[in-house]
Amino acid sequence: MRSIVKYLIVMTIISFVNSCNAQLMQTLNDANKIELNKDYYVGKKFKTILVDIKPKIESYSILPDPSYTKAGGVSLLFDTPARHFNRLSNAKTKDESPATIGVYFTDIDAVNKIIKNRRGQWTHGLADSLSNLIIQRVYAYGKN
User: Beta strands 59-64 and 71-77: pairing type?
Assistant: First the structure.
């Protein structure tokens, strides 16, 4: 009986670890894993998705709110903005596009207090400032 209980505990732990790993973006080619699990992130703090993104985020670009008057979120870019948008303009399909993760937040006013520029270098300070904001919507596409 004890061996059955131990077996069940071990199998439960293994399945939990495997389910967590499925959400990780290990490489830039794994952006689709974020897209497939986007519902998991909605309603959670921004730091939740940052933990699941392993490639270094190099820069950001703002995403406008529905009125196009303020920032509503950020696009996480894995290259400089100039190179990213150059590659994006040359891509024929989303799969040919550079990896991009877009995150919209519920508190637009907080986003606008934190982010002052349309584009810029991603820093730990910026990540920390945004980390407790609640995610409203997520999208991801592209590859390395």
Answer: antiparallel
Six-digit token string for 105: 């937040």
Contacts of 102 (CB under 8 A, 6+ apart): 63, 73, 74, 75, 76, 137, 138, 139, 140
Residue pair 75/61 in contact (Cβ under 8 Å)? The answer is yes
Contact 76, 101 (CB under 8 A): yes
pTM as predicted = 0.77
Assigned token pair, 137? 């919507």
Per-residue pLDDT, 21 = 46
Q: What is the DSSP letter of 99?
A: P
Low-confidence spans in the chain with pLDDT less than 50:
18, 21-22
Q: Which tokens sit at 116?
A: 């002052």
Q: What is the pLDDT of residues 119-134, one digit of tens each?
A: 889 999 999 999 999 9
* Cα 108 to Cα 133: distance, rounded to the nearest angstrom: 10
Which tokens belong to 132? 């407790």
> Residue 91 carries which DSSP code?
-
* Angle CA 11–12–13, to nearest 5: 90
Residue found under tokens 């870019």: 77
